[in-house]
Design brief:
The chain is an alpha/beta fold. It has four domains: 1-45 and 159-185, DNA polymerase, domain 1 (Orthogonal Bundle), CATH 1.10.150; 51-152, OB fold (Dihydrolipoamide Acetyltransferase, E2P) (Beta Barrel); 256-450, P-loop containing nucleotide triphosphate hydrolases (Rossmann fold, 3-Layer(aba) Sandwich), CATH 3.40.50.300; 461-619, P-loop containing nucleotide triphosphate hydrolases (Rossmann fold, 3-Layer(aba) Sandwich). It has 23 helices and 22 strands. The strands form four sheets. It has a seven-stranded parallel beta sheet with strand order 12-13-11-14-15-10-16, with helices on both faces. Strands 17-22-21-18-20-19 form a six-stranded parallel beta sheet, sandwiched between helices. The structure holds adenosine-5'-diphosphate (ADP) and magnesium ion. Adenosine-5'-diphosphate is lined by residues 271, 273-274, 277, 300, 302-308, 430, 454, 562, 564, 591.
Length: 703
């Protein structure tokens, strides 16, 4: 067998016979551009043609398959634009009526005496059984064993787009398999296939499209899903091993005198650390003292107190004579962190700087200079930090908050130090990622969990409401405001948008509330991503200082915003948000010791959306919310896996394929131990596969 070469499979589909320009365009809508794309357009499901019954055995209700002869010339009836074709089918065991609605062409096709396979559902009509709209597979004149076999199997059902039929796609895929499958390299080395009982690529591709039977399909799916998980993790892990294997980080161990100073700052905090915070901090402290770079994820539900952990870790770096950086996904959050660090450690004389995309050029230049000459100890900022001009004299620790908001790419960019010094890396995420997804997203990180809330927290009472409840909710809002408490109101849009119909926009809602004579005295402020940085800051300042009682916002406040005096969260068009996002939003309240309420407004009818919202009402644990979300929606759109820089999975199901996930993870570990740079000829094919399947080039460091 030939080694194969992915290049041979990258030919455009337009090269295939039967693919016109029009079809090329239709296929492009399915993201199919090349022969390889077509081979990797996996069926969504299958029609089962494997159980052949005789007519006497047919029962109503279920899909049935039988072989029969057309016993009577079909009768076509038209009524306006509607039509019916009726005939009778027979085999040696009996007869059954058949009817097709609006398929007039069947009348010409189903000649009397024709023998074919039929698949459809039976109903009882006027006292007799009748098969409705059966799919017909005509057998050639000279029926042979193989022709029967080609029908009596699982038939693929592909995702379609208007203008393309199953029949066309099936033929195209079959044509590709026949002409090109021999050129397809097997991405998985033979030894690995043997170890994990995986079939060969050629067999897998043929059987995933046209399975001989269920067993063959299962073997094929297992192999391809494994490959998908394996390659994804390999890509991520290899990025890490390439960059980390040879790396050294500065040891940030503290001598006794500096340890004492660190302890002192800890004692002076406005609160006592929780057990979980103490435990996680001890791990971090230990990691930091080594010369192996730390790569640790701290995962903790909203409000579990991650900021102080970042602060104490940064302090250790600074006391050890190095610099630290704290990166946040939004300028609002970065600014808040900057102030939090000042508040948490008021007596420290460390030099903090804040750098965001909006920092004026002059100030920016002076900050950059301060970082380069070492006079600035800790830099807090946004993505602007990632730009190449930012150089540190001695970066010891890089902390990324709300990791899920950054892609993998950005995380690794930050880890690269232009001077060849490698900081320890700490990432923090409030998004409770189910373990299965964590393996994929953070396969390269050690994970610590903050599984304890600071004392005194009460769960946020959560309710659903409809538009009709608004006046009662407004009363509640007024009562809270009068007590000196504050509230958030979150809208799915910034501005009204006709296309999106009656979705509520922050600007409109804010205008309405500001015009409400009872609410106006509480000075509602507006905050959304399209505002200028200065306006955003002014709004945040007004809200944190208590000047403004009500903050009308979009999801910009989803992450990080911390105002313990806010006790009411109102979310409009709640059905528009993912559960994870709703949970994050809810986490903006309930941060102090006052009882807090979250109200999810939605006018959608009963159904999955409602069910999801109700789930939130009685689930307060972020991990449970995430698991439930994954179960309800499937991993495909689980708060946008794409956002994490992880390719979509076509076959693997992160929820159901836990075992494959673990096996594939083990396989990746084993492989990288044996051949860390993937230099063996068999392993080089993996690099090519990653390139072709995911468009990743592992050859480029940092993606
Ligand atoms: P998150 O994990 O969501 O980033 P924060 O770090 O913003 O949480 O902390 C939430 C709130 O809890 C802040 O107001 C913070 O000062 C407070 N906090 C953190 N740790 C403790 C603690 N151990 N005891 C009491 N309050 C705490
Ligand atoms: Mg936070």
């Amino acid at each position: 067998m030939s080694e194969g070469d992915y290049q041979a499979l990258l030919v455009p589909v337009s090269r295939l016979a039967a693919v016109s320009q029009r079809r090329t365009q239709l296929l492009a809508r399915l993201n199919v551009h090349t022969v390889l794309d077509l081979l990797r357009l996996f069926p969504r499901q299958y029609e089962d043609w494997t159980k052949l019954l005789s007519i006497a055995e047919l029962k109503e209700g279920a899909e049935v398959v039988f072989k029969a002869e057309v016993a009577r010339a079909p009768a076509l009836q038209r009524r306006g634009r509607q039509s019916t074709v009726r005939t009778v089918l027979k085999d040696s065991s009996g007869m059954v009526k058949a009817v097709w609605f609006n398929q007039a062409w069947q009348a010409d096709k189903l000649l009397k005496g024709l023998t074919a396979y039929f698949r459809g559902r039976l109903r009882r009509y006027n006292g007799s059984l009748e098969i409705m709209n059966p799919v017909v597979e005509v057998i050639g004149q000279a029926e042979t064993e193989t022709e029967a076999e080609s029908v009596l199997r699982l038939h693929p059902v592909y995702p379609l787009t208007a203008g393309l039929t199953q029949g066309v796609l099936r033929n195209l895929v079959r044509q590709c398999l026949d002409q090109y499958l021999d050129y397809l390299p097997d991405a998985l080395p033979a030894e690995l296939r043997r170890r994990y009982h995986l079939c060969e690529a050629g067999y897998a591709y043929r059987q995933i499209h046209f399975p001989a039977d269920q067993t063959a399909h299962d073997l094929a799916r297992r192999r391809l899903a494994f490959e998908e998980l394996f390659l994804t993790q390999l890509g991520l892990r290899r990025l890490k091993s390439q960059e980390m294997a040879s790396r050294e980080a500065p040891s940030l161990a503290l001598d006794p005198e500096r340890t004492r100073r660190w302890q002192e700052s800890l004692q002076q905090l406005p609160f006592k650390l929780t057990g979980a915070q103490t435990r996680v901090l001890a791990r971090i402290s230990q990691d930091l003292s080594l010369t192996r770079p730390m790569s640790r994820l701290v995962q903790g539900d909203v409000g579990s107190g991650k900021t102080v952990i970042a602060g104490l870790a940064l302090l250790q770096a600074v006391l050890a004579g190095h610099q630290g950086v704290l990166m946040a996904p939004t300028s609002v959050l970065a600014t808040q962190h900057y102030h939090s660090l000042q508040k948490l450690f008021p007596r420290l004389d460390w030099q903090l700087a804040l750098l965001t995309g909006q920092t004026p050029a002059r100030q920016r230049r002076s900050i950059l200079a301060g970082l380069e000459d070492g006079s600035i100890d800790v830099l807090v900022g946004t993505h602007a930090l990632l730009e190449d001009q930012v150089r540190f004299a001695a970066l010891g620790l890089a902390v990324t908050d709300e990791q899920h908001r950054f892609g993998v790419r950005q995380r690794l960019r930050l880890a690269l130090d232009p001077q060849g010094r490698h900081p320890h890396v700490l990432v923090m995420s409030a998004t409770p990622i189910p373990r299965s997804l964590g393996l994929i997203l953070y396969g390269d990180l050690d994970i610590s969990r903050l599984d304890e809330m600071p004392p005194g927290r009460q769960p946020v009472a959560t309710y659903t409401a409809g538009r009709a409840d608004w006046s009662r909710v407004r009363d509640l809002l007024l009562r809270r405001l009068k007590q000196g408490e504050q509230a958030y109101l979150v809208c799915p849009l910034v501005q009204a948008n006709e296309q999106l119909g009656d979705l509520l926009a922050a600007e409109t809602v804010w205008q309405k509330l500001s015009a409400d004579p009872l609410l106006a005295p509480f000075k509602p402020v507006l905050l959304h991503g399209q505002m200028k940085a200065r306006e955003k800051q002014a709004a945040m300042d007004a809200f944190s200082s208590g000047q403004a009682g009500l903050l009308v916002a979009t999801t910009v406040i989803e992450v990080g915003v911390d105002n313990p005096n806010a006790t009411l969260m109102l979310i409009l068009n709640a059905e528009r948000f993912g559960l994870a996002t709703l949970h994050q939003l809810r986490g903006r309240v309930g941060r102090g010791d006052k009882a807090s309420v979250c109200i999810l407004f939605s006018d959608v009818p009963e159904g999955l959306s409602r069910e999801r919202l109700r789930l939130l009402c009685h689930t307060h644990d972020g991990f449970k919310v995430a698991e439930a979300d994954l179960k309800l929606r499937g991993p495909g759109d689980f708060f946008g896996t794409r956002q994490h820089g992880v390719p979509d999975f076509r076959l693997a199901n992160l929820y159901e394929d836990q075992e494959l996930l673990q096996e594939s993870q083990e396989a990746v570990t084993r492989l990288l131990k044996q051949d860390p740079l993937l230099q063996q000829p068999a392993d080089r094919r993996l690099t090519a596969a990653l390139d072709c399947y995911f468009g990743w080039s592992m050859a480029q460091p940092g993606l």
